[in-house]
Amino acid sequence: MINPRKVVRPLSQDRAVREMNKYKNSEVFDLIYPNRATMLHFGELLTKYQVRNPRQVFDVFLVATMLSSQVTKLLTLNVADFKFEEVEVISLK
Q1: 18-54 burial, b for 16+ CB within 10 Å, e for fewer?
Q2: Is the alpha carbon torsion for 38, 40, 44, 50 positive or negative?
Q3: Is the separation of the CB atoms in 87 and 73 below 8 Å?
Q4: Exposed/middle/buried for 67, CB within 10 Å: 0-12, 13-18, 19+?
Q5: 1 pLDDT exceeds 80?
């Protein structure tokens, strides 16, 4: 939302926070958090998939958090970063 290399009209950081708070406070989306099962999924994913860049660990943890909450679809601009057969990745481009 704020990266000019990823979006045509990036938002300011303050505006992005306001937009996120609208979603957070709405009834439209459920927020998910890491739970006990997240670490199990995280270990399984790290065993199954090669992490080429240390920053990819965050993507693996995101997918582990999704799986531990039975979320299987991810909307992203970074489809290439999410090569996990456990989730369906949908491009926002």
Answers
A1: eeeeeeeeeeeeeeeeeeeebeebbeebeeebeeeee
A2: positive
A3: yes
A4: buried
A5: yes
Place of tokens 């369906």: 88
d(CA 56, CA 61): 9
Span 4-56, pLDDT tens digits: 887 889 999 999 999 989 988 888 888 899 999 999 999 999 999 999 888 89
Task: Work out the average pLDDT over 63-74.
Answer: 97
Evaluate the CA torsion angle 59, 64, 69, 75 in order and state its sign. positive
Contacts of 11 (CB under 8 A, 6+ apart): 1, 2, 19
Token digits of residue 29 = 């989306």
Tokens of 88: 């369906």
